[in-house]
Amino acid sequence: MVYIMSWDDFVERSVQLFRASPEKTRYVMKYRHSEGKLVLKVTDDKECLKFKTDQAQDAKKMEKLNNIFFTLMARGPETDISEVTGKEQTAQPPKRGRGRKQ
């Protein structure tokens, strides 16, 4: 099992692996507090993809990967995941509250 160094490459290959065999693909997270390392593994028993990090900022990336897998599992493997990975956010209307009138 070889670790993939690039996060983007890991995500892309993991999604391809899931789409190829959604019934057999597993996604595992392992955190070792003593070493401060997080290891992510995606496998279908034929191919194994692993990513290792010790950076706290990668936790947000892991959360996005979880959202991608949840979307693919809930909506099906052929679902477009651009809305999950995109950064488009809707503008929220200003709040009207008990502030001072201007």
UniProtKB/TrEMBL annotation:
Residues 6-66 form the SRP9 domain. GO terms for cellular component: cytosol; signal recognition particle, endoplasmic reticulum targeting. Pfam families: SRP9-21 (PF05486). It comes from the Eukaryota. Residues 80-102 are annotated as: Disordered. GO terms for biological process: negative regulation of translational elongation; SRP-dependent cotranslational protein targeting to membrane. Keywords: Cytoplasm, Ribonucleoprotein, RNA-binding, Signal recognition particle. It is found in: Cytoplasm. InterPro entries: Signal_recog_particle_SRP9/14, SRP9, SRP9-like, SRP9_dom. The keyword Cell inner membrane does not apply. GO terms for molecular function: 7S RNA binding. Its main location: cytoplasm. Component of the signal recognition particle (SRP) complex, a ribonucleoprotein complex that mediates the cotranslational targeting of secretory and membrane proteins to the endoplasmic reticulum (ER). SRP9 together with SRP14 and the Alu portion of the SRP RNA, constitutes the elongation arrest domain of SRP. The complex of SRP9 and SRP14 is required for SRP RNA binding. Belongs to the SRP9 family. This is Signal recognition particle 9 kDa protein. It comes from Lactuca virosa.
